[in-house]
């Protein structure tokens, strides 16, 4: 079976991306312990990878310069914002160059384990504030792989796959349901609490998606 | 004074890049402890940054998948090769996506500390085997910064500067001499020994440069 590296955060989107990838690939998941407030996503990622029958590795990295409310407890995580506002600006939860760094490690891993593909669960419909989630960014990062690796310059390059790119959270949830993604174990909340706060941008998008489909969030049963 | 992030390995090239950068910028150096055999370069980098009056941070990262003779002690570091051979192929000392990862962290740091520039001491004249040292690679990585960061999409992007790109080791040595780079503290050898081995690709290029200029390597006085 062909191999893929999957960037798995422990949230809904990357879990769905993994369940799409595993239909065709032997999956090697990478999760980053990068000093984020919401460390609960690390346990979520481990559980999801195990349930999906995928290999999994957590890499510890650091952002000593911080620069994000996900890293710096002195900056408040925004709460209770409307979706229109969220989409209009880059929020304080933006972590400078995070996806650039994650994709760089995925590239290194893919080159060594001879994976054909890197899966990332990014999408533009929601969270459009993050510059490193936009289609233009992925296009140029693909060129970095093509030009900056041995695999890319030798023969067929490693390809970035972004299966959810054009979807919104509701559609992603629908796809995930069909694939039996264990959403009860995914973690979305940006805050570091024991239970999801229900009011950060990430909780709000998640809530909205479940409400639109008229189903109850299975993660909420665990409270 | 404007700020620059400088990728400082502890070798000759990045030391010269730092001494070029510090003429115009307040420099913030980044060095990576990535499991390399030649950990001596970490001490070298710290010393050089201090002498240059630059800030310095060592980031610990890992490549659990290895894939390079610099990381995997089971793979031998090539020795005694001719320069023509070295230039013809990607050597086993290539670390998959290393410069992609280093530049990614530099991008994150630069964005947060509001640096205008990232300096990297890469050059193509020697070591042309490494795909992530080629001009084409830097061109596309520049686009990643332009498209994938808040700074890049908001206003003026962070610029990668590669001041030594077109030079060979001899020319780099000459420039460094003029700038009074403390070459006696730089570390080039790929092997993990107490003293440089004198026969790995990196030692050979260094030796050749000093020989061509007819001067003795000051690092050799320390033995």
Question: In which range does the helix fraction of chain A lie?
Answer: 25-40%
Overall mean confidence score, pLDDT of chain A: 93
Largest sheet of chain A: 5 strands, parallel
Secondary structure tally: strands of chain A: 5
Shape of chain A: globular
Q: In the CATH hierarchy, what is the class of chain A? A: Alpha Beta
Distance between the termini of chain A: 39 Å
Strand content of chain A: 5-15%
CATH fold category name of chain A:
Rossmann fold
Tell me the name of the CATH homologous superfamily of chain A: HUPs
The CATH architecture category of chain A equals 3-Layer(aba) Sandwich
Question: What's the helix count of chain A?
Answer: 8
Using only C-alpha atoms, the radius of gyration of chain A works out to 17 Å
Subunit arrangement of the protein: homodimer
Biggest interface, and residues per chain?
A: A-B, 45 and 45 residues
Regions with little confidence, pLDDT below 50 for 5+ residues of chain A: none
**What number of domains of chain A?**
1
Structural class of chain A: alpha/beta
Description:
Two copies of one chain form a homodimer. The first copy, chain A, is α/β, with parallel strands linked by helices and 223 residues long. Chain A has a single domain (3-222), classed as Rossmann fold. Chain A is built from eight helices and five strands. A five-stranded parallel beta sheet of chain A has the order 3-2-1-4-5, with helices on both faces. In chain A, strand 2 (26-33), helix 2 and strand 3 form a beta-alpha-beta unit. In chain A, helix 1 packs across helix 7 (169-178) and helix 7 (169-178) crosses helix 8. Chain A starts with a strand and ends in a 10-residue tail after the last helix. The interface between A and B is large, with 45 and 45 residues.
């Amino acid at each position: 079976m062909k191999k893929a590296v999957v960037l798995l955060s422990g949230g809904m989107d990357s879990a769905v991306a993994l369940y799409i990838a595993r239909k065709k690939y032997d999956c090697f998941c990478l999760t980053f312990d990068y000093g984020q407030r919401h460390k609960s996503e690390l346990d979520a990622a481990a559980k999801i990878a195990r349930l999906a029958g995928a290999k999994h590795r957590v890499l510890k990295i650091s952002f000593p310069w911080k620069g994000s409310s996900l890293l710096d407890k002195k900056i408040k995580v925004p709460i209770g914002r409307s979706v229109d506002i969220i989409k209009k600006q880059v929020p304080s939860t933006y972590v400078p160059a995070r996806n650039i760094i994650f994709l760089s490690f995925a590239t290194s891993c893919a080159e060594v384990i001879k994976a054909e593909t890197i899966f990332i669960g990014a999408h533009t419909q929601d969270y459009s504030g993050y510059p490193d989630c936009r289609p233009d960014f992925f296009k140029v990062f693909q060129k970095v792989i093509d030009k900056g690796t041995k695999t890319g310059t030798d023969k067929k390059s490693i390809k970035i796959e972004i299966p959810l790119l054009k979807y919104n959270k509701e559609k992603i949830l629908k796809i995930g349901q069909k694939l039996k993604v264990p959403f009860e174990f995914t973690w979305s909340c940006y805050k570091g609490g024991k239970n999801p706060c229900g009011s950060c941008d990430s909780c709000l998008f998640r809530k909205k998606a479940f409400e639109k489909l008229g189903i109850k969030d299975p993660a909420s049963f665990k409270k």
